[in-house]
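Q: What structure does this chain adopt?
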Amino acid sequence: EEIGIPGRDYLREALTSCHDPLKAIEDFQIDNGILLPSLRPMLPLLDLHGIKRLDFHNSVLEDLRDKLVAQINELGNSTDPKEKDKKLRDLLSKSFPVIQIKEVRPVVMSILKNMSYIEDRYLRFLVRDKQLYADCDIEIKRHLWRDNQSLFGDEVSPLLSQYIKNKENVLFNHESGQAGFFSGSPKSRRQAEVIQKLAEMIGTNVKLYDMTLQFLRTLFLRTKNVHYCTLRSELLMALHDREIQEVISVDPCHKFTWCLDACIREKNVDLKRSRELQGFLDAIRRGQEQVLGDLSMTLCDPFAINFLSQSAMKLINHQVDKEGLPRDQTVLHLLLRMLALGLSAWEMIETQDFREPKLELPLLVQFLPALMSLIVDDQVRSLNAKLPVEERDTAGIIIDHSGPPPDMYDVQVSQCQIAASLAMQYTLQTAKSKDKTGVMRVLGVLAQNIKGHPFEDAFLHTLVTLLIAMKEEFENEDFCTSVFDEFFFTCINVENMNRHLMRLLWWIHTKLPPARISTLLKVAEPTTSGSGDAASNMYDALREKMMAHQAMDPHQENINTF
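A:
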């Protein structure tokens, strides 16, 4: 009736004011039925077959609706935008009044979907009605979200939470003894459902992209969770893969992120790429400093930190092999510069002081030589172990190459986050080569210096994976002392450390000295306050697994007493 077609009100009036209701109904059917003379004789035949007029008309409506939607979509692909927009506007003004009729709603939605601009009065009507909003295609919702940040936030928020949950599930997954976090190429990681959904929601709309980035900055600032930095990079590169030029061309970090992504994919920074990366950093002029905030988020991504610190360690090892000095390696300086920028991301965004941090001189002239001396010690011990027993200088090796690390190493790790990043990577290097002495020398140094570090969880995940591969060493009390007493126990009062410890125990508990098991289970138990269901469930499963092993091994102490 809103568009001049007789409906319920007209029929009610006709029936209440007529002398013959059956004649009024017949007249209404004739006037408003399908105006096709050849169809009239067929209707009684359908009646004889028991087919209701309603069912017949609905089937015709569906067929016509599908044909009309197809024609509207064809019009939407027209090469003449002015003509297209004019026709769609006319269609919308005639059809929008019937949008509440569910059967014809797809036609109206199809018109809206193909429009490049939708007037505010239509958008306001759609937002007010939850059912209509739910039925909107994503192309229409982009128009609705563009000027309604809270509505867009409500849609994006569950996806961001799911993304963080997915990352944490990989980090703390006790059922896998493999380092799943860093597996897979950058391109395969951004095929994840959450990333693709976000890219689809943003489409070519720059305003929605800017809103998403603002959400990520705010959440990173509020939680210090570095996975939001990963999401910032992965989302940009997902849009890059889709070739959404409207968005990526206005993101000042695009070329830098693209270049860094290529380096991470190839696991190498060659001279050409290093010049490109340095060129991006050097090209930031006065008045453009705010770009550093977004660049620092890109570099605070754990995958970027891992790549930069790993590449730096490769160059440091190379300098050791050729007896060179770290200050002579220009690419190493660039990697440290990028690390410094990434590790200062939270502070830079929080203070809004967009200045690139300077590399401290002690890092270059004290810490790096101390780190190189540790690498030399590792090589000497390895070489000595390969000699025949009678030719080994065991006493000299223990005294000169197995003692505590140099003082400058400890001092810089505690004072400088870049040094701590390199120390973590060096510790992983020794664990990867299953160098028990090397691990025991430096693991305790990190205990108080990784809390709150952007690389903390990724490091602990990888360290636990490498320690699982050294499970035989846990039969020795000195190794247990280094790993548990000097490292895990000193920073166990946080849930993430508990969960990494539980993952380690899950795989190595069969090798532990009996006296250790009860203590470790008590220490690993999650605290009641702030402990999530995942940690509690993991602890229960671990305790059950260890008790089952104890039941099969009579030599183990009873752990069921607490």
